[in-house]
Design goal:
The protein is mainly beta. The protein has a domain of 93 residues: Immunoglobulin-like (Sandwich). The strands form two sheets. Strands 1-2-7-6 form a four-stranded antiparallel β-sheet, with no helix packed on it. The protein has a three-stranded antiparallel β-sheet with strand order 3-4-5. The protein starts with 15 loop residues before the first helix and ends in a 16-residue tail after the last strand. The model has no long low-confidence stretch (mean pLDDT 84).
Length: 138
Amino acid sequence: MTKLTLGTYPHMLGFEQLERLLERAAKSGNEGYPPYNIEQTSNRSYRITLAVAGFSENDLAITVEDRQLVIRGRQRDDVQDRVFLHRGIAARQFQRSFVLADGVDVGDAIMENGLLHVDLTINMPDTVVQTIKIKRGG
């Protein structure tokens, strides 16, 4: 089976970067932890919510790296001072990545009741019509 690429379509020019973004999103390797929701909060905004029970604000890092929102969590291990009779809540680290389109800005990050909310807004560019003058060859 032949893999179709955007380069297969000669009328679609300059979309190589989009193709690379799609490949990166497919390879992001996000496992199922922590669970998350993505909701549309208006025509131009989204909210990503991650279930991060047991993590504090200091245990989390949010960065934007090359048009990719990366959320990392790493709990400090203070096990030395504690004796567990049963340990069912794992203190494991995680990384969640979300590929962002052009014009998507990361807004506030809010921690509430074990949930981390990250707000995104879409800035729509103004429509530009450009007329190209045809020159006479000579």
